[in-house]
Amino acid sequence: AAKAAGKNRFAFYDQSMTDHARNMLHLRHELVQGIQEGQLLLHFQPRVDLRSRRVCGMEALVRWQHPERGLLMPGMFLPLAERSDLICLIDHWVLETARKEMLPLAEFMGSIRIAVNLSARDLYDSEHLDHLLSILKQNFSHGGVLLELEITESTLMQDVDAAIAQLHRIKQVIPGVRIAIDDFGSGYSSLNYLRRLPIDILKIDQSFIRDLGGENPSAEAIIRSIIELARNLGMRVVAEGIETESEALLVQGLGCDEAQGYFYSQPVPMDELIGRLDRNLTLSQAI
Ligand code: C2E
Ligand code: MG
Ligand code: MG
Ligand code: MG
C-alpha cells in the first residue's frame, strides 16, 4: 500500500510539473501577444530629495494589463520574461515609453531624470547590449529627459569584469547617464569591486528600512556604513521603501540624499502624478 501511495504521489507530482510547464508556456504566449497588442503600461514612482523635499526624479515600473486577470505586477511575469530574450524586448519598450511619457514634464521643468531597471540579459549578452546602446542613443542623447539605469547588486555581481566594461560603454554613448545599484545590501558584493564599478548611486534595499527603529540596532548600523561608504566613493544614497514619516525622518537623519516609497507616493500613471505635483515639483501630500 505504501508503495502504491508513493507511486501515486510521484504520478501526481509529475502531473503538476507538466501542468506548470504548460501554464508557463501559455503565459509566455499571452505575454508575447500582450506586448504586440499594447497591454504593457508604466507606473511612475517619484523620488524625493530629502533636503529640498522636491521630486528629483521618477522610477518607471512596468505593469501588464492582462485582458482576464487584471493588472499584473512585474513579479507575476518578469521572471518568465527573464528566461528568454523577451525581457530585452520589454526593457526596450520601457525605455522608449518612459521617455515619451516624461517629455511634457521635462519640457516644463527644463529637465528631469527617469530611472529604468535593467536585467542581466540586457547587460551581458553583447548582441543585446548593441541593441540597447542604439535605443539609448535614439532616446537619451538630446537632454531633457535624463537617464538613470538601475541594476541590482546581484546582477552586477554575476560577472563584475563584464559589468565594468559594459557600463563604461553605456557611459561613453550617453554622457550624463547615471548608474544606480538597486537593492544594495541584499546580495554579497565585494567592496573591492564596488570601487571599480562606475556607479553613481546606491539604492539601499527595502529590507533595511523595514528593520529600522525596532529593538535591533543592526539595520541602522548597516545603513550608516552604506552611507559612509557611498560618501567615500562619491556616490549618492537613495532609501527605498519609505512607508512612514518616521522612516523618512530616520533616513534623513542618517544622511540619505533621496527617498522613495509609499509614504511619498505609490507608483501611479503619469497623469495622476502630474496632478499631484505643484510648480515647485513638490508633492501635494508629502511632508
Ligand atoms: P525595484 O526596482 O527594486 O522597484 C521597487 C519595488 O518596490 C517596486 O515594486 C515598487 O512598487 C515597490 N515599492 C515602492 N515603494 C515601496 C514601499 O514603500 N513599500 C513597499 N513594500 N514596496 C515599495 P514592483 O513595481 O512590483 O517591481 C518589482 C521589481 O520588478 C522592481 O524592483 C524591479 O526589479 C523589477 N522591475 C519593474 N519594472 C521593471 C522593468 O521595466 N524592467 C526590469 N528589468 N525590471 C523591472
Ligand atoms: Mg529599481
Ligand atoms: Mg529596489
Ligand atoms: Mg527589487
Task: Provide a compact summary of the structure.
With 287 residues, the chain is of the alpha/beta class. The chain has twelve helices and nine strands. This is Diguanylate cyclase (GGDEF)-like protein/PAS domain S-box-containing protein.
What would your notes on this structure say?
This protein is α/β, with parallel strands linked by helices and 287 residues long. The model has no long low-confidence stretch (mean pLDDT 91). Strands 1-2-4-5-6-7-8-9 form an 8-stranded mixed β-barrel, surrounded by 4 helices. The radius of gyration is 21 Å and the shape is globular. It is 52% helix and 20% strand. It contains 12 helices and 9 strands. It has helices at residues 2-36, 74-81, 86-109, 120-124, 126-140, 153-158, 160-173, 191-196, 206-210, 218-232, 245-254, 270-276, and strands at 40-49, 55-66, 70-72, 112-117, 145-152, 178-184, 201-204, 236-239, 258-259. The structure holds ligand C2E and magnesium ion (3 copies). Residues 45, 61-62, 73-75, 78, 91, 94, 117-119, 150, 182-183, 206, 241-243, 261-262, 267 line the site of ligand C2E.
